[in-house]
């Protein structure tokens, strides 16, 4: 089983997670920029973070046979903080980077006017830079937020087929299914979706324009829940080809719209490359370092 995790926050994970993910079949992933758990206080802290997920994290992933890409944006939660507005001014230079395959995460957290203004501005950047967009739906009042998201996308000039609306569930999937946007589902141990609920949605809505991710941030999460979803699909009667479509070909199809997704010749070598360093640092520790 080959897996492309289209939404996973590896900056919050350990190197051991990369090893486990490779063993589970993960060969490529996309890391969206997101809220780190506490407020950032200046644009410089965002720049350091963007540089890390475009530099150190791709190196760290490569040492375990995984291709790493990113989405860059001002996240919805911090869109409300006036100290973060300058981030919009630096986004254009980051959106030109080779490994940036979409603008995101963007969208709503609490559905404030400030969030909508920043959401619209970043959709406009996606149009200008000819990139897809990864959209975060709010944790509260999710149905209203999803409906408003679709309205804003429709008014943006960005083709719905270039927009992935994420963190969906049984309540919101129908709204996005009819919009032409892609549908994303985050599989979590306790919240959002689980593998068996995901299988039920696939049975009802089919496989087209659907991607499954682990998100796997600093909260209670599991980077192997993409694998568990594939196993649940097989147990429910889906074919090997069906699983490959959901866990590999669909995310490849969506992010390939960026023109920057280079995964045809992935390095299948597992294990850290001897002597490889990034800024003088390796991923090895202890007696092997």
From TrEMBL:
Q: Which InterPro entries match?
A: Metal_Hydrolase, TatD-like, UCP005295
Q: Does the keyword Metal-binding apply?
A: yes
Q: Does the keyword Transmembrane apply?
A: no
Pfam entry (one): TatD_DNase
Print the keywords alphabetically: Hydrolase, Metal-binding
Q: Which GO-annotated molecular functions does the record name?
A: hydrolase activity, acting on ester bonds; metal ion binding
Q: Which domain of life is it from?
A: Bacteria
What the record says about family reads: Belongs to the metallo-dependent hydrolases superfamily.
Name the UniProt record assigns to this protein: TatD family hydrolase
Query: Can you name the source organism?
Result: Phycicoccus avicenniae
Query: According to the entry, what is the taxonomic lineage of the organism?
Result: Bacteria, Bacillati, Actinomycetota, Actinomycetes, Micrococcales
